[in-house]
Design goal:
This protein has helices spanning about 50-60, 65-75, and strands at about 5, 10-15, 25-30, 30-35, 40-45. It contains 2 helices and 5 strands, in the order βββββαα.
């Protein structure tokens, strides 16, 4: 599971050949969530409100890169790191 970004104790991952819809995984302490890239909404799991806000802010800034990474991981298995929020 490639680590795409890491900031403020928040780790963003994507899986190789994962299921649709395009999404990314967030780990923060004992919390886990899956976030839909297009809708920027939680698909599964839970994050503290403050952390979710930071993740959504970051994802809004990098939505095109996230989509590109999703497509690349699915087709070639390659990905690029994405800049952290801070």
């Amino acid at each position: 599971m490639p680590e795409i970004s890491h900031f403020l104790g928040i780790v963003i991952y994507m899986y190789f050949n994962d299921h649709n819809p395009p999404h990314f995984h967030v780990h923060y302490n004992d919390f886990r969530a899956m976030i839909d890239i297009e809708k920027l909404a939680v698909i599964n799991g839970h994050l503290p409100a403050r952390v979710l806000g930071l993740v959504i802010e970051w994802a809004e800034l990098h939505q095109i890169e996230l989509t590109s990474n999703w497509e690349s991981l699915v087709t070639t298995g390659l990905y690029s790191k994405i800049s952290p929020l801070v």
